[in-house]
Amino acid sequence: MKAAAFAEFGGPEVLSLMSRPMPEAGPGQVRVRIKAAGMQPFDTAVRAGWTPPGLTDPLPRIPGNEFAGVIDQVGPGVADQGEPGVRLDVGTEVLGFSLLNSYAEYIVVPATDVTPKPPELPWEVAGALTAAVQTADIAIGQLNPATGETILIHAAAGAVGSVAVQLAVRRGATVIGTAREENHAYLRDLGAIPVAYGDGLTARVRALAPGGVDAALDGAGGAALDASLELVPDRGRILTMVDHAKADELGIMVTKGVRTAERLARYAALCAKGELKFLIRRTYRLEEAADAHREIETRHGRGKLALLI
Q1: Could you give the C-alpha distances from 120 to 123, 259, 273, 278, in angstroms and in order?
Q2: Rounded CA gap, 186 and 281, in Å?
Q3: What is the CATH classification number for the domain harbouring 177?
Q4: Which of 273, 222, 274, 265 is nearest to 245 (CA)?
Q5: Which region, left, alpha or beta, applies to residue 91 given φ > 0 means left and ψ of -120 to 50 means alpha?
Q6: CATH number of the domain to which 77 belongs
Q7: What is the extent of the structural domain holding 92?
Q8: Do 75 and 172 fall into the same domain?
């Protein structure tokens, strides 16, 4: 099969189109012919040399931990492995998640890690949905913003941030979202009050929230985290998705939870019904994966990137 992979760690240029062995589904597994895969900073970190905990696979490695496609092989025992009441047969359209290996024509995963794709959901959205909705759901669940509270969300126009904005709004919270000015109209459409990054951020947020800020979700790190520490009285209600190494020292949270097919199915259904907005700002072909990584590493842009395979 074809895959976008790397045989050495480095910049985007190490990522290239390769021929890799076709995977085979074993007991409790399904093989999926991938139609689309999401792309995110996790992937660029893996390519640059970071090794996810527990990973022992040798090089070459195929990045990508979210995908959508069509099941084309079912291993023994799959009928007993998936979600209750869900049949996973050859020909079933699914979306799912993995640790790596999604930038490829085929992937093998446990049947527990996929869920049927709603017919109304476009392939590029389905392929890129998992990481953003699961991370946002876990983070907002930990922060637990309530009706009448104010939550500050940094990098609010990104994939995780834009979902987190919508989840907090659904809970009845007032959301202040930091973003570049060209993304402010987008944030207003999601229900947030936008605010620009840069010098004077803390003062601008205080002006928008005279009653104070109750919680903060940091998707940017650095100065954004510093502003959160200054604005939120209770450090137990600050969560960083970026500066993990500082969390214990500062007494703040990081995301703690695991991805599940059940959660993914719920959010896929909301997207299919138009009740959750999820923006794909650009798609790339498999052979253009290195260009996509270059765009990700600019750390700008609303929504998500996706590979079409």
Answers
A1: 9, 23, 8, 13
A2: 12
A3: 3.40.50.720
A4: 222
A5: left
A6: 3.90.180.10
A7: 2-129+278-308
A8: no
Looking at the fold, whether 113 and 156 belong to one and the same domain comes out as no
Answer yes or no: do 119 and 7 share one domain.
Answer: yes
Residue 284 lies in a domain: yes
Contact yes or no for 128/36 (Cβ under 8 A) = yes
Could you tell me the two tokens for 89? Answer: 């047969």
Q: What is the pLDDT of residue 86?
A: 76
Q: Which two tokens stand for residue 56?
A: 């022992």
| pLDDT at site 211 | 94
Residues 154 and 111 in one domain: no
Q: Is the dihedral of CA 291, 293, 296, 302 positive or negative?
A: positive
Confidence (pLDDT) at 85: 66
Low-confidence ranges of the chain (pLDDT < 70): 80-85
State both tokens at 240: 């960083």
Looking at the DSSP bridge assignments, the partners of residue 74 are 30
Q: How crowded is residue 288: how many other Cβ atoms within 10 Å of its Cβ?
A: 16
Query: Does 141 share its domain with 200?
Result: yes
* Residue 29 CA: distances (Å) to CA of 25, 37, 114, 227: 5, 19, 10, 45
Nearest to 54 by CA among 86, 87, 100, 91: 100
